[in-house]
Amino acid sequence: MATKRDYYEILGVARDCSTPELKASYRKLAVRYHPDKNPGDSEAEERFKEAAEAYAVLSDADKRARYDRFGHQGVGGAAGNPFSGGGFDPTIFGDFGDILSEMFGMGGRRSRRGGPTRGADLRYDLSITFEEAVFGSEESLRIPRLEGCEECDGSGSAGSKAPETCATCGGRGQVAYRQGFLTVARPCPRCEGEGRIVTDPCKNCGGEGRVEQERTIEVKIPAGVDHGSRLRLTGEGEHGRRGGPPGDLYVVLAVEPHERFHREGTTILTEEEVGYAQAVLGSSVEIETVHGPTTLEVPPGTAGGTDFRLRGKGVDRVGGGGRGDHIVRVAVRVPHPRELSEEEGELLRKLAELSGQPIREGVFEKVKKMFG
User: Fold this and answer.
1) Model's pTM, two decimal places?
2) In terms of CB atoms within 10 Å, which of 16, 99, 178, 206 comes out highest?
3) DSSP calls for 125-162
4) Which CATH superfamily is domain 115-151+206-256 in?
Protein backbone atom coordinates (compact mmCIF):
# COMPACT_ATOMS: atom_id res chain seq x y z
CA MET A 1 0.00 0.00 0.00
CA ALA A 2 1.30 3.43 -0.93
CA THR A 3 2.77 5.45 1.92
CA LYS A 4 0.55 8.36 2.97
CA ARG A 5 2.11 11.78 2.62
CA ASP A 6 2.75 14.00 5.60
CA TYR A 7 -0.24 16.24 6.35
CA TYR A 8 1.92 19.35 6.76
CA GLU A 9 3.59 18.61 3.43
CA ILE A 10 0.19 18.21 1.75
CA LEU A 11 -0.97 21.63 2.93
CA GLY A 12 2.42 23.22 2.33
CA VAL A 13 2.82 24.61 5.84
CA ALA A 14 5.42 24.37 8.59
CA ARG A 15 4.80 22.07 11.57
CA ASP A 16 4.55 25.07 13.89
CA CYS A 17 2.14 27.00 11.65
CA SER A 18 -0.75 28.93 13.18
CA THR A 19 -4.42 28.03 12.71
CA PRO A 20 -5.05 30.97 10.32
CA GLU A 21 -2.07 29.87 8.18
CA LEU A 22 -3.41 26.33 8.13
CA LYS A 23 -6.86 27.48 7.13
CA ALA A 24 -5.58 29.80 4.41
CA SER A 25 -3.50 27.06 2.83
CA TYR A 26 -6.41 24.60 2.88
CA ARG A 27 -8.78 27.12 1.30
CA LYS A 28 -6.30 27.75 -1.49
CA LEU A 29 -5.93 24.04 -2.26
CA ALA A 30 -9.66 23.39 -1.98
CA VAL A 31 -10.40 26.09 -4.54
CA ARG A 32 -7.68 24.82 -6.87
CA TYR A 33 -8.58 21.12 -6.79
CA HIS A 34 -12.35 21.18 -6.22
CA PRO A 35 -14.04 18.58 -8.48
CA ASP A 36 -16.46 21.16 -9.88
CA LYS A 37 -13.49 23.08 -11.28
CA ASN A 38 -11.76 19.90 -12.52
CA PRO A 39 -14.48 17.63 -13.94
CA GLY A 40 -13.19 14.20 -14.83
CA ASP A 41 -9.72 14.86 -13.40
CA SER A 42 -9.03 11.97 -11.05
CA GLU A 43 -5.71 13.42 -9.90
CA ALA A 44 -7.36 16.71 -8.85
CA GLU A 45 -10.04 14.68 -7.06
CA GLU A 46 -7.41 12.81 -5.05
CA ARG A 47 -5.58 16.03 -4.23
CA PHE A 48 -8.84 17.57 -2.98
CA LYS A 49 -9.59 14.56 -0.77
CA GLU A 50 -6.01 14.51 0.48
CA ALA A 51 -6.10 18.21 1.43
CA ALA A 52 -9.46 17.84 3.16
CA GLU A 53 -8.21 14.88 5.19
CA ALA A 54 -5.09 16.76 6.24
CA TYR A 55 -7.10 19.82 7.23
CA ALA A 56 -9.66 17.70 9.15
CA VAL A 57 -6.87 16.40 11.35
CA LEU A 58 -4.66 19.47 11.76
CA SER A 59 -7.54 21.88 12.36
CA ASP A 60 -8.57 19.85 15.42
CA ALA A 61 -6.26 20.56 18.37
CA ASP A 62 -6.54 17.04 19.87
CA LYS A 63 -6.08 15.24 16.56
CA ARG A 64 -3.17 17.47 15.65
CA ALA A 65 -1.46 16.68 18.97
CA ARG A 66 -1.89 12.93 18.40
CA TYR A 67 -0.65 13.23 14.83
CA ASP A 68 2.41 15.23 15.90
CA ARG A 69 3.25 12.48 18.42
CA PHE A 70 2.26 9.25 16.66
CA GLY A 71 1.90 10.20 12.98
CA HIS A 72 -0.84 8.67 10.84
CA GLN A 73 -1.33 5.79 13.26
CA GLY A 74 -2.50 8.22 15.93
CA VAL A 75 -5.42 9.42 13.76
CA GLY A 76 -6.06 6.35 11.62
CA GLY A 77 -9.43 5.17 10.37
CA ALA A 78 -12.61 7.20 9.99
CA ALA A 79 -11.52 9.71 12.59
CA GLY A 80 -8.92 11.09 10.24
CA ASN A 81 -10.89 10.96 7.00
CA PRO A 82 -13.80 13.38 6.48
CA PHE A 83 -15.01 11.37 3.47
CA SER A 84 -15.36 8.03 5.25
CA GLY A 85 -18.82 6.75 6.15
CA GLY A 86 -18.67 7.30 9.90
CA GLY A 87 -17.60 10.12 12.11
CA PHE A 88 -18.31 12.91 9.61
CA ASP A 89 -18.03 16.30 11.24
CA PRO A 90 -19.65 18.99 9.06
CA THR A 91 -17.97 21.76 11.05
CA ILE A 92 -14.74 21.23 9.11
CA PHE A 93 -16.63 22.71 6.16
CA GLY A 94 -17.86 25.65 8.16
CA ASP A 95 -16.11 28.03 5.77
CA PHE A 96 -16.92 26.06 2.64
CA GLY A 97 -19.32 28.78 1.51
CA ASP A 98 -16.36 31.13 1.27
CA ILE A 99 -14.51 28.60 -0.88
CA LEU A 100 -17.47 28.37 -3.26
CA SER A 101 -17.62 32.14 -3.28
CA GLU A 102 -13.99 32.33 -4.42
CA MET A 103 -14.64 29.71 -7.11
CA PHE A 104 -17.92 30.87 -8.58
CA GLY A 105 -18.49 34.40 -7.27
CA MET A 106 -21.31 33.32 -4.97
CA GLY A 107 -21.88 36.28 -2.70
CA GLY A 108 -23.26 36.59 0.74
CA ARG A 109 -22.00 34.70 3.72
CA ARG A 110 -24.72 33.59 6.10
CA SER A 111 -24.01 33.95 9.76
CA ARG A 112 -24.25 30.90 11.93
CA ARG A 113 -27.01 30.06 14.40
CA GLY A 114 -29.36 32.77 13.20
CA GLY A 115 -27.09 35.70 13.98
CA PRO A 116 -27.22 39.07 12.23
CA THR A 117 -26.29 39.10 8.56
CA ARG A 118 -24.89 41.94 6.49
CA GLY A 119 -27.20 43.41 3.87
CA ALA A 120 -26.55 43.06 0.16
CA ASP A 121 -24.62 45.66 -1.84
CA LEU A 122 -26.56 47.56 -4.50
CA ARG A 123 -25.53 49.05 -7.85
CA TYR A 124 -26.96 52.13 -9.56
CA ASP A 125 -25.94 53.11 -13.11
CA LEU A 126 -25.95 56.90 -13.54
CA SER A 127 -25.49 58.80 -16.80
CA ILE A 128 -23.92 62.27 -16.55
CA THR A 129 -22.83 64.91 -19.05
CA PHE A 130 -19.23 65.64 -20.04
CA GLU A 131 -19.33 68.91 -18.13
CA GLU A 132 -20.73 67.26 -14.98
CA ALA A 133 -17.85 64.80 -15.05
CA VAL A 134 -15.31 67.62 -15.40
CA PHE A 135 -16.71 70.00 -12.79
CA GLY A 136 -18.65 67.65 -10.52
CA SER A 137 -22.31 67.81 -9.57
CA GLU A 138 -24.92 66.73 -7.06
CA GLU A 139 -27.57 64.17 -7.96
CA SER A 140 -30.69 62.86 -6.22
CA LEU A 141 -31.15 59.11 -6.69
CA ARG A 142 -34.31 57.13 -6.01
CA ILE A 143 -33.13 53.81 -4.60
CA PRO A 144 -35.45 50.86 -3.83
CA ARG A 145 -33.97 48.68 -1.10
CA LEU A 146 -34.86 46.33 1.76
CA GLU A 147 -34.99 48.03 5.14
CA GLY A 148 -35.70 46.74 8.63
CA CYS A 149 -39.41 46.26 9.35
CA GLU A 150 -40.61 48.82 11.88
CA GLU A 151 -43.59 46.69 12.94
CA CYS A 152 -41.49 43.85 14.33
CA ASP A 153 -38.25 45.78 14.77
CA GLY A 154 -36.59 43.47 12.26
CA SER A 155 -37.23 40.25 14.19
CA GLY A 156 -39.81 38.83 11.77
CA SER A 157 -42.10 37.77 14.63
CA ALA A 158 -45.52 39.31 15.18
CA GLY A 159 -45.69 38.69 18.94
CA SER A 160 -43.28 38.37 21.80
CA LYS A 161 -42.56 34.72 21.02
CA ALA A 162 -38.97 34.32 19.93
CA PRO A 163 -38.10 32.32 16.80
CA GLU A 164 -37.48 28.60 17.42
CA THR A 165 -34.27 26.75 16.68
CA CYS A 166 -34.57 24.75 13.46
CA ALA A 167 -34.88 21.05 14.29
CA THR A 168 -33.52 19.95 10.93
CA CYS A 169 -30.09 21.57 11.23
CA GLY A 170 -29.99 22.11 14.98
CA GLY A 171 -29.53 25.84 14.50
CA ARG A 172 -26.39 25.52 12.39
CA GLY A 173 -28.14 26.66 9.24
CA GLN A 174 -26.38 23.87 7.29
CA VAL A 175 -26.92 20.19 6.68
CA ALA A 176 -24.50 17.62 5.29
CA TYR A 177 -25.11 16.01 1.90
CA ARG A 178 -23.18 13.24 0.17
CA GLN A 179 -22.43 13.57 -3.55
CA GLY A 180 -20.43 10.57 -4.67
CA PHE A 181 -17.18 10.58 -2.70
CA LEU A 182 -17.74 14.15 -1.52
CA THR A 183 -19.74 15.22 1.52
CA VAL A 184 -20.46 18.92 1.71
CA ALA A 185 -22.50 21.30 3.83
CA ARG A 186 -25.42 23.13 2.24
CA PRO A 187 -27.96 25.64 3.53
CA CYS A 188 -30.74 23.94 5.44
CA PRO A 189 -33.85 23.67 3.18
CA ARG A 190 -36.28 24.12 6.10
CA CYS A 191 -34.90 27.33 7.59
CA GLU A 192 -33.11 28.45 4.39
CA GLY A 193 -29.81 28.67 6.21
CA GLU A 194 -31.11 30.88 9.01
CA GLY A 195 -30.87 28.28 11.76
CA ARG A 196 -34.24 29.33 13.17
CA ILE A 197 -37.95 29.21 12.33
CA VAL A 198 -40.38 32.10 12.84
CA THR A 199 -43.59 30.47 14.08
CA ASP A 200 -45.65 33.70 14.33
CA PRO A 201 -44.58 35.80 11.32
CA CYS A 202 -45.11 39.55 11.23
CA LYS A 203 -47.95 40.50 8.87
CA ASN A 204 -46.11 43.57 7.60
CA CYS A 205 -42.96 41.75 6.42
CA GLY A 206 -44.18 38.13 6.32
CA GLY A 207 -41.50 37.03 8.76
CA GLU A 208 -38.67 38.37 6.62
CA GLY A 209 -37.86 41.16 9.08
CA ARG A 210 -37.36 43.56 6.18
CA VAL A 211 -39.64 45.42 3.77
CA GLU A 212 -38.89 47.19 0.49
CA GLN A 213 -38.71 50.96 0.67
CA GLU A 214 -37.74 53.62 -1.86
CA ARG A 215 -35.38 56.28 -0.59
CA THR A 216 -33.99 59.48 -2.08
CA ILE A 217 -30.24 59.63 -1.64
CA GLU A 218 -28.14 62.69 -2.38
CA VAL A 219 -24.89 61.88 -4.18
CA LYS A 220 -22.03 64.32 -4.58
CA ILE A 221 -20.06 63.59 -7.74
CA PRO A 222 -16.51 64.93 -7.39
CA ALA A 223 -14.86 66.90 -10.15
CA GLY A 224 -12.68 64.83 -12.46
CA VAL A 225 -14.58 61.53 -12.52
CA ASP A 226 -14.42 59.57 -15.76
CA HIS A 227 -16.49 57.03 -17.65
CA GLY A 228 -16.72 53.85 -15.59
CA SER A 229 -15.84 55.55 -12.29
CA ARG A 230 -17.47 53.88 -9.29
CA LEU A 231 -18.59 55.79 -6.21
CA ARG A 232 -19.08 53.82 -3.01
CA LEU A 233 -21.71 55.04 -0.56
CA THR A 234 -21.03 53.12 2.64
CA GLY A 235 -24.11 51.85 4.42
CA GLU A 236 -26.59 52.86 1.70
CA GLY A 237 -27.24 49.31 0.47
CA GLU A 238 -29.85 46.88 1.75
CA HIS A 239 -30.28 46.59 5.50
CA GLY A 240 -29.05 43.40 7.12
CA ARG A 241 -31.26 40.79 8.75
CA ARG A 242 -31.91 40.81 12.49
CA GLY A 243 -30.07 44.08 13.02
CA GLY A 244 -27.11 43.20 10.81
CA PRO A 245 -25.11 46.01 9.23
CA PRO A 246 -26.29 47.41 5.87
CA GLY A 247 -24.49 46.82 2.63
CA ASP A 248 -23.05 49.53 0.40
CA LEU A 249 -24.38 51.35 -2.65
CA TYR A 250 -22.12 51.55 -5.70
CA VAL A 251 -22.90 54.28 -8.22
CA VAL A 252 -21.32 53.47 -11.60
CA LEU A 253 -20.95 56.51 -13.88
CA ALA A 254 -21.46 56.63 -17.64
CA VAL A 255 -20.16 59.90 -19.14
CA GLU A 256 -21.91 61.10 -22.30
CA PRO A 257 -19.55 62.00 -25.18
CA HIS A 258 -19.01 65.65 -26.13
CA GLU A 259 -19.37 66.88 -29.70
CA ARG A 260 -16.13 68.89 -29.53
CA PHE A 261 -13.98 67.78 -26.62
CA HIS A 262 -12.26 64.43 -26.34
CA ARG A 263 -10.80 63.29 -23.05
CA GLU A 264 -7.89 61.04 -22.10
CA GLY A 265 -7.56 60.90 -18.33
CA THR A 266 -7.12 64.48 -17.14
CA THR A 267 -6.15 65.74 -20.61
CA ILE A 268 -8.64 67.27 -23.05
CA LEU A 269 -7.96 67.07 -26.78
CA THR A 270 -9.40 69.24 -29.57
CA GLU A 271 -8.59 70.03 -33.19
CA GLU A 272 -8.51 73.61 -34.46
CA GLU A 273 -8.51 74.61 -38.11
CA VAL A 274 -6.31 77.53 -39.24
CA GLY A 275 -5.98 78.98 -42.71
CA TYR A 276 -2.97 78.46 -44.95
CA ALA A 277 -1.88 82.08 -44.56
CA GLN A 278 -2.32 81.92 -40.77
CA ALA A 279 -0.10 78.85 -40.58
CA VAL A 280 2.56 80.41 -42.78
CA LEU A 281 2.61 83.92 -41.33
CA GLY A 282 1.48 83.13 -37.77
CA SER A 283 -1.62 84.38 -36.01
CA SER A 284 -3.62 84.56 -32.78
CA VAL A 285 -6.52 82.09 -32.69
CA GLU A 286 -9.32 82.01 -30.12
CA ILE A 287 -9.74 78.54 -28.65
CA GLU A 288 -12.75 77.22 -26.74
CA THR A 289 -11.84 75.21 -23.63
CA VAL A 290 -14.03 73.67 -20.91
CA HIS A 291 -12.97 76.61 -18.73
CA GLY A 292 -13.95 79.24 -21.33
CA PRO A 293 -12.30 80.90 -24.35
CA THR A 294 -8.57 81.53 -24.47
CA THR A 295 -6.08 82.75 -27.07
CA LEU A 296 -3.62 80.42 -28.81
CA GLU A 297 -0.55 81.97 -30.44
CA VAL A 298 0.21 80.09 -33.66
CA PRO A 299 3.83 80.84 -34.63
CA PRO A 300 4.85 81.42 -38.28
CA GLY A 301 5.56 78.27 -40.24
CA THR A 302 3.27 75.98 -38.24
CA ALA A 303 2.73 72.66 -40.00
CA GLY A 304 -0.54 70.76 -39.95
CA GLY A 305 -0.70 68.21 -37.13
CA THR A 306 1.31 70.33 -34.70
CA ASP A 307 0.17 70.03 -31.07
CA PHE A 308 0.01 72.95 -28.64
CA ARG A 309 -0.39 72.45 -24.90
CA LEU A 310 -2.57 74.79 -22.85
CA ARG A 311 -1.45 74.05 -19.31
CA GLY A 312 -4.04 73.86 -16.57
CA LYS A 313 -6.97 73.92 -19.01
CA GLY A 314 -7.86 70.24 -18.61
CA VAL A 315 -9.63 68.17 -15.94
CA ASP A 316 -9.07 68.26 -12.19
CA ARG A 317 -7.50 65.16 -10.65
CA VAL A 318 -9.96 63.40 -8.36
CA GLY A 319 -8.94 63.94 -4.76
CA GLY A 320 -6.67 66.87 -5.57
CA GLY A 321 -3.21 67.03 -7.06
CA GLY A 322 -3.68 69.65 -9.71
CA ARG A 323 -5.34 69.84 -13.10
CA GLY A 324 -4.52 68.36 -16.47
CA ASP A 325 -3.86 70.20 -19.73
CA HIS A 326 -5.71 70.94 -22.96
CA ILE A 327 -3.91 69.86 -26.12
CA VAL A 328 -4.85 71.63 -29.37
CA ARG A 329 -3.90 69.95 -32.65
CA VAL A 330 -3.67 72.38 -35.55
CA ALA A 331 -5.16 71.37 -38.89
CA VAL A 332 -4.18 73.61 -41.81
CA ARG A 333 -7.20 74.24 -43.98
CA VAL A 334 -6.54 74.12 -47.73
CA PRO A 335 -9.36 75.85 -49.63
CA HIS A 336 -11.02 74.24 -52.64
CA PRO A 337 -10.54 76.14 -55.93
CA ARG A 338 -14.28 76.89 -56.00
CA GLU A 339 -13.83 78.86 -52.78
CA LEU A 340 -11.20 81.19 -54.28
CA SER A 341 -11.94 84.55 -55.86
CA GLU A 342 -10.15 85.54 -59.05
CA GLU A 343 -7.90 87.85 -57.09
CA GLU A 344 -7.04 85.12 -54.57
CA GLY A 345 -6.25 82.73 -57.41
CA GLU A 346 -3.98 85.27 -59.07
CA LEU A 347 -2.12 85.91 -55.82
CA LEU A 348 -1.59 82.19 -55.27
CA ARG A 349 -0.25 81.83 -58.81
CA LYS A 350 2.24 84.63 -58.18
CA LEU A 351 3.21 83.06 -54.85
CA ALA A 352 3.87 79.78 -56.59
CA GLU A 353 6.04 81.48 -59.19
CA LEU A 354 8.02 83.40 -56.57
CA SER A 355 8.62 80.27 -54.52
CA GLY A 356 9.78 78.31 -57.56
CA GLN A 357 6.78 76.01 -57.52
CA PRO A 358 5.15 76.48 -60.92
CA ILE A 359 1.53 75.47 -61.30
CA ARG A 360 0.76 72.87 -63.95
CA GLU A 361 -0.20 74.61 -67.20
CA GLY A 362 -3.94 75.01 -67.60
CA VAL A 363 -4.86 74.70 -63.93
CA PHE A 364 -5.10 78.41 -63.26
CA GLU A 365 -6.97 78.99 -66.50
CA LYS A 366 -9.50 76.37 -65.48
CA VAL A 367 -9.94 78.12 -62.16
CA LYS A 368 -10.56 81.44 -63.94
CA LYS A 369 -13.14 79.84 -66.21
CA MET A 370 -14.82 78.34 -63.19
CA PHE A 371 -15.57 81.85 -61.96
CA GLY A 372 -16.78 83.11 -65.34
Assistant:
1) 0.58
2) 99
3) EEEE-HHHHHH-EEEEEEEEEEEE-TTTTTS-BSSSPP
4) Urease metallochaperone UreE, N-terminal domain (2.60.260.20)
